[in-house]
Design brief:
Elements lengths: L6 H6 L2 H5 L3 H6 L5 H54 L3 H14 L4 H13 L3 H14 L4 H15 L3 H13 L4 H13 L3 H14 L3 H13 L3 H11 L6 H18 L3 H14 L4 H15 L3 H19 L37 H12 L3 H14 L4 H13 L3 H14 L3 H13 L8 H14 L4 H13 L3 H13 L5 H14 L3 H18 L7 H18 L3 H15 L4 H13 L3 H14 L4 H13 L3 H14 L4 H13 L3 H14 L4 H14 L2 H14 L4 H13 L3 H14 L4 H13 L3 H14 L4 H13 L3 H15 L9 H5 L6 H30 L8 H17 L14 H6 L11 H9 L6 H6 L6 H8 L1
Helix pairs in contact: 4-5, 5-6, 6-7, 6-8, 7-8, 8-9, 8-10, 10-11, 10-12, 11-12, 12-13, 12-14, 13-14, 14-15, 15-16, 16-17, 17-18, 18-19, 18-20, 19-20, 20-21, 20-22, 21-22, 22-23, 22-24, 23-24, 24-25, 24-26, 25-26, 26-27, 26-28, 27-28, 28-29, 28-30, 29-30, 30-31, 30-32, 31-32, 32-33, 32-34, ...
């Protein structure tokens, strides 16, 4: 059929119309038949129609492409908005927006991945798994979805079969993918399958080098002590990495290998310098170099921190343009977070650093030195450069809290949370609400909500679990606290030491010694892998695990195991921990190796001269050994370094009392109460001194003052009862002991004393009940078994003796605290031949102990030193004296100790005898510790750090 559009031309038979349609037709067909002309016309029409169709198709394709690009642009903007909402903590809105994206594009793998991770953060585990399943169905070739799903299942099942199946599915897509190989290798390493982990990481490194693969494989080889292979690995792959960040990460691991394991500090310093050469703006490298310089030049803790500060200040000066803004009296005013966050006096692009980590590290050094005003100035300088760094605002809040500016601290925390919600800030805010609530009454629900929010923001933040669990434990909610710590253990936190240490302390406080020991050992093993290949501030927290485990073994009469734990901690974390050195020295002392203990004590006080308990325990050891002059020197050195430590004053006064210098001992008790007025054992020991001297009225007055300050201390009631017993008030003795049990129901010594008093009064049945109640409180207190056995023997109660024997056998043969079970042997009335042999062995041990006690008694009676104090200690004491002479010569004069405390003022006139020959020396020493002396000024800024007190008092 001929198209109607050309029919008129065909009807007229005009050949001109045909030739005019196409020049090519005229050239090739000058004489065409009518049929050929019709064919040509049809072809021409078809070409015209096709041309129109192609034009319309191109236009439609252009419009479709434009619409597709618009849709992609819209999805991209929605995705970025969802991530911003997630960073701001608006997770519900972010989740809704990601679901909207998937409604527009059901094949967007990035949105599936972001939504699944967000649901996991919201603790919606099943919903996250469903999102992963939907995503892998819609995007079956997205290896990132398969890998993320496998990691999610691994975190829930701890290496279960589902996680392994998902990793295998990912391998079908790409068997050399570095992300899949790295995550799968971590799973195998946790399962102790080191060979499989090594093969996975080496296979991925054949195709591509990444910092995560290199560092993980290096850590594996370091754990196997294959140091040269680790060095070759770092050296080979550091140049193959494509980004500066990854190169810096490998350089840091390389430097730690050289310093920690190969003892090549110079090479480690060169590697850190190379990292800064690659990326001069890396704050990680700057802080690592500062820590290295501190360890390199600082033997004592204050010297080490000073060297770190110098290095950080130099790096900061090299990397920052001096500020041109006015800073007059900037450090004297509290931080005001309500100033505009956008108005930063220093633009970020003018600096070479990416964040405020260097300023944070500098401020932390000042906080450890209790120089809070200087820390405040440093943080203000950092906020001038990085007003949007939420971690700087959080650190500023901690400083303001230390300075007592609670309102400023709360404002800084709020500003940090407005910039970006973070787990450390939420934890700090929760603790602030517990210590300083807005209302007069603590609103625990508010703090609990902040803790839960912190765990939602970062489920692997160990200190959040630790603080949350301890807060619940203080309120008596033991089961809830245990559940929180269990969540932390299952979360595989990046700072595992915090979780396991808090959990172990909970179990120990409940009396579950075996469970506490197990948790400490598990935490040490996990912390060892976390800190194997890289220096980290978390390593300092891991020391607490070793210290607590060592002290547990030491208090359980396992000094050999305690020494092994302390020495292992020193090997792992270096000789920079005075707590670990002290624990090792105490273990050696308990084993009778005094010569081995002295160098450890010396190292402990050299690392931290302010470690008061190290001075105290060392001095007590020398005092028991009869080296009284050495003990006196050690006590004085400790008190010059830390005059607020009441136990040091108590030990020094006890030394003078044993030497027979009663008046000198009274003077020391007086000065101790001036410097440590809340240390009630000083009053109790002073009362015991007056009791031995026969000053009943003074002793009664002192112990009354002690019980007024702390009525829950059972020792005070024992001293009060002993005073009344000496004066013949037997009726009052029973009343005091009964009152003591009401105030201190867990003091087993009170049960023993009350039972003995009742037995002396002839009240046998009541005495038996008291003994049994005491054994229920502490089944391991052997003295109660002996007392009750004597009671039953007096009344010839063989049935009671047999019952007591069975009970003792249960507790003392379990070896819960490393005991030997001698209590059961001592009270067994009908013994077999084996029991008689054990008794003869125990009697032999008792004779040996008696002989040793006799030797020790002879040493104490001699009162002379057989060895000199180590030269370093003598030099330290001499240096302290010389410094105080130069700083305040007027303060070095003899004056009487006077105070407004009634018992002290009363006892000043008790004795008219003159002081001993060393009175002038003692007065000279005490005058240097007066309120206007340099030591008083040096240590009056603030109390010791809480963590240091915990470790020292352990």
């Amino acid at each position: 059929m001929i198209p109607t559009s050309i029919s008129p031309t065909v009807a007229t038979g005009d050949p001109g119309g045909i030739w005019t349609t196409s020049s090519s037709t005229r050239l090739h067909s000058p004489q065409q038949t009518p049929i050929r002309r019709r064919i040509s016309l049809c072809r021409s029409a078809s070409i015209q129609s096709s041309s129109d169709f192609v034009g319309r198709s191109i236009s439609n394709q252009h419009k479709s492409k434009t619409a597709h690009d618009d849709e992609k642009s819209q999805i991209r903007e929605m995705f970025q908005q969802a991530k911003r909402l997630e960073r701001q903590g608006q997770w519900r809105k972010a989740s809704s927006l990601l679901n909207d994206i998937l409604a527009l594009d059901a094949t967007d793998a990035h949105s599936y991945l972001a939504l699944a991770k967000l649901e996991a953060r919201r603790n919606r585990i099943q919903e996250a798994a469903r999102v992963f399943e939907r995503g892998t169905v819609a995007c079956p070739q997205s290896i990132h979805l398969w890998q993320a799903w496998a990691v999610h299942e691994d975190s829930q099942s701890q290496g279960g079969p589902k996680a392994r199946e998902l990793y295998e599915r990912a391998f079908h897509i790409d068997p050399y993918n570095p992300y899949v190989c790295h995550a799968y290798g971590l799973l195998e390493r946790r399962g102790q399958n080191f060979q499989a982990a090594q093969e996975l990481w080496e296979r991925a490194l054949e195709k591509k080098s990444t910092a995560a693969l290199v560092c993980s494989l290096g850590e594996l080889w370091i754990g196997q002590q294959r140091y040269e292979q680790a060095r070759a690995l770092y050296d080979l792959h550091v140049a193959k990495l494509t980004t500066r960040r990854e190169q810096v990460e490998v350089y840091l691991a390389y430097a730690w290998l050289e310093e920690r394991y190969l003892r090549n500090v110079a090479r480690a310093r060169d590697l850190l310098q190379a990292a800064l050469h690659v990326d001069p703006s890396s704050s990680w490298a700057q802080v690592a170099l500062a820590r290295l310089e501190g360890r390199r030049y600082g033997g004592q803790s204050n010297h080490r921190e000073a060297q770190e500060e110098v290095t950080l200040q130099r790096l900061t000066k090299d990397n920052f343009i001096p500020s041109t803004t006015s800073t007059d009296k900037a450090g004297q005013q509290p931080l005001k977070s309500k100033k505009s966050l956008a108005q930063s006096t220093r633009r970020i692009e003018k600096t070479n650093c990416h964040d405020g980590r260097v300023f944070n590290a500098l401020a932390k050094i000042q906080v450890k030195a209790r120089k809070y005003d200087k820390a405040r100035r440093i943080l203000r300088e950092g906020l001038q450069h990085y007003s949007r760094d939420f971690s700087l605002w959080q650190a500023a809040g901690k400083v303001e809290e230390r300075l007592g500016n609670v309102t400023g601290a709360r404002s800084c925390y709020a500003t940090s949370l407005c910039i970006q919600p973070s787990a450390p800030t939420l934890v700090a805010y929760a603790l602030l609400e517990l210590k300083h609530p807005v209302e007069k009454k603590v609103n625990f629900s508010r703090s609990q909500g902040l803790f839960e929010e912190a765990l939602l923001v970062d489920p692997r933040h160990g200190p959040a679990y630790n603080s949350y669990g301890n807060a619940l434990l203080k309120r008596g909610q033991v089961d809830a606290a245990r559940a929180i710590f269990e969540r932390g253990v299952q979360a595989n936190c990046s700072d595992a030491a915090s979780v396991f240490h808090g959990y172990a302390k909970l179990e120990l406080s409940m009396g579950n010694v075996s469970r506490g020991r197990q948790l400490l050992q598990q935490g040490l093993e996990q912390a060892r892998w976390q800190h194997l290949g890289m220096d980290s501030p978390h390593r300092d927290r891991a020391r607490f695990l070793a210290h607590t485990l060592g002290m547990l073994e030491l208090n359980s009469d396992n000094p050999l195991e305690a020494r092994r734990v302390f020495m292992d901690g020193l090997r792992r974390y270096g000789n920079s921990s005075s707590q670990l050195l002290l624990g090792a020295a105490m273990s050696e002392m308990k084993l009778g190796n005094e010569d081995s203990a002295r160098p450890l004590y010396e190292k402990a006080v050299a690392v931290n001269p302010r470690h008061a308990q190290a001075w105290q325990v060392w001095g007590v050891m020398e005092m028991r050994a009869g080296r009284w002059d050495d003990a006196q020197t050690l006590f004085q050195c400790g008190l010059r370094s830390n005059p607020k430590h009441g136990a040091l004053w108590l030990a020094y006064a006890t030394l003078e009392g044993r030497k027979g210098h009663a008046q000198v001992s009274r003077t020391l008790f007086t000065k101790g109460l001036q410097h440590a007025p809340n240390h009630t054992p000083l009053l109790q020991a002073w009362a015991s001194l007056e009791l031995r001297q026969g000053n009943w009225s003074a002793a009664r007055l002192l112990i009354t003052q002690a019980l007024t300050r702390d009525k829950h201390n059972g020792s005070g009631w024992l001293v009060a009862a002993e005073i009344e017993k000496r004066t013949g008030n037997n009726g009052l003795v029973l009343l005091l002991l009964r009152r003591g049990l009401e105030c201190a129901p867990n003091c087993v010594e009170l049960y023993r004393a009350l039972g003995d008093a009742l037995l002396s009064a002839g009240k046998i049945q009541e005495a038996r009940e008291i003994y049994e109640r005491g054994m229920d409180i502490d089944p391991q207190y052997a003295t109660l078994y002996h007392s009750l056995a004597q009671l039953e023997a007096q009344v010839f109660n063989l049935e009671g003796l047999s019952k007591l024997n069975k009970k003792a056998a249960i507790h003392f043969q379990t070896d819960k605290f490393g005991g030997s079970g001698m209590g059961a042997t001592a009270i067994n009335s009908q013994k077999s031949e084996k029991d008689r042999t054990n008794r003869r062995s125990n009697d032999s041990d008792k004779e040996r102990r008696t002989s040793a006690d006799g030797v020790l008694g002879q040493k104490l009676k001699m009162g002379r030193s057989r060895t000199r104090v180590p030269p370093e200690v003598t030099a330290l004491a001499q240096r302290i004296v010389e410094e105080e002479v130069e700083e305040n010569a007027e303060a070095r004069r003899v004056r009487n100790a006077a105070t407004t405390e009634d018992p002290v003022a009363f006892l000043e006139c008790l004795s008219s005898a003159s002081l001993m020959d060393n009175e002038l020396l003692l007065g000279d020493f005490l005058s240097s510790l007066d309120d206007d002396g340099p030591c008083r000024r040096r240590h009056n800024e603030d109390d010791l750090d809480e963590s240091s007190n915990v470790q020292s008092d352990a």
